[in-house]
Amino acid sequence: MKIYTKTGDDGSTGLIGGSRVSKSDPRIECYGTVDELNASIGLAAVAADAPLRTRLERVQAELFSLGSNLALPNDDRAIPMAPVLDPRLVEQLETEIDTATAELAPLRNFILPGGSEAAARLHLSRTICRRAERLAVDLPDTATARHLAVLYLNRLSDWLFVEARYANHRLGVADVIWSG
User: Fold this and answer.
1) Which of 16, 73, 106, 180 would you label with 170, given CA atoms 20 to 30 Å apart?
2) Residue 69 or 54, more confident
3) pLDDT tens digits for 123-153?
């Protein structure tokens, strides 16, 4: 199978099911940013300890499913290729946020991205996640998976923030306090 198809040379791209839209379509921008987020999480995973790496790899799979759902034509669940998004994914992120937060010192200041390499990479992923969330918010209400995408990405950005702090904590590295 060739990597290049030449079908996008006219500035269009295919959705799941075969319909084509402009590469500038807001949905393409959104799931392209979800793909960028997934790549940045892969970068974070290489600097993570084994337990965090496992959680990050799970999130990468979830993001792949989310992106697949965003690539569906509007509200077309009849296409069997896309995995069904489970709202319990958000609950799992919340549980993990609560578990990690219980071990962290209370947050009394704004913190700057950084500390350890793992935390800095997680903070970068968090900022990409926030952009993906903003793009998902701007999708039409009819877009497949829009509501769950917004909800999941919002909670994921919180999760990435807490995981960055938790990575610093586990490494014995202080968060970088903003002194502005």
Assistant:
1) 180
2) 54
3) 999 999 999 999 999 987 766 578 889 999 9
For the chain, the structural domain boundaries read 23-177
Nearest to 178, CA basis, from 110, 115, 114, 132: 110
Convert 113-143 to b/e letters by CB count within 10 Å (16 or more is b).
bebbebbbbbbbbbebbbbbbebbeebeeeb
Query: What is the mean predicted confidence (pLDDT) over 112-119?
Result: 96
Burial environment of residue 39 by CB neighbours within 10 A (0 to 12, 13 to 18, 19 or more): middle
Fold held by 23-177: Hypothetical Protein Ta1238; Chain: A; (1.20.1200)
In contact, 41 and 125? CB cutoff 8 Å: yes
Rounded distance between C-alpha atoms, residue 102 and residue 8, angstroms: 49
Predicted TM-score of the model (pTM): 0.90
The pLDDT value given to residue 21: 76
CB 167 within 8 A of CB 48: yes
Q: Is beta strand 111-112 parallel, antiparallel or unpaired with respect to 176-177?
A: antiparallel
Alpha-carbon distance 127 to 147, whole Å? 20
